[in-house]
């Protein structure tokens, strides 16, 4: 007779939850610092240049 395997599903569940949270948080940080902040920096630089051009046009 084969002994029943007990607690296997519970252990696997917590492993899956831990991996999902770890990968999700890692992916979020990678997106935030790798993509989002660079996009915001480009956007801010664009609007800064636009304001400088407007100020220069108003002086002349």
UniProtKB/TrEMBL annotation:
Localisation: Mitochondrion inner membrane
Main localization (coarse): mitochondrion
Coiled coil: none
Keyword Mitochondrion attributed: yes
Membrane-spanning segments: 12-32
Keywords (A to Z) from UniProt: Membrane, Mitochondrion, Mitochondrion inner membrane, Transmembrane, Transmembrane helix
GO molecular function: cytochrome-c oxidase activity
GO cellular component labels: mitochondrial inner membrane
Gene Ontology biological-process entries: mitochondrial electron transport, cytochrome c to oxygen
Transmembrane helix is among the record's keywords: yes
PANTHER family assigned to the protein according to its UniProt record, in alphabetical order: CYTOCHROME C OXIDASE SUBUNIT 6C (PTHR28264:SF1), CYTOCHROME C OXIDASE SUBUNIT 7A (PTHR28264)
Name listed for the protein in its UniProt record: Cytochrome-c oxidase subunit VIIa
Protein species of origin: Crepidotus variabilis
Lineage: Eukaryota, Fungi, Dikarya, Basidiomycota, Agaricomycotina
């Amino acid at each position: 007779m084969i002994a029943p395997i007990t607690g296997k599903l519970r252990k696997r569940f917590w492993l899956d939850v831990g991996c999902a949270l770890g990968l999700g948080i890692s992916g979020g940080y990678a997106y935030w610092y790798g993509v989002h902040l660079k996009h915001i920096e480009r956007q801010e630089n664009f609007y800064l240049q636009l304001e400088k051009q407007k100020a220069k046009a108003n002086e002349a």
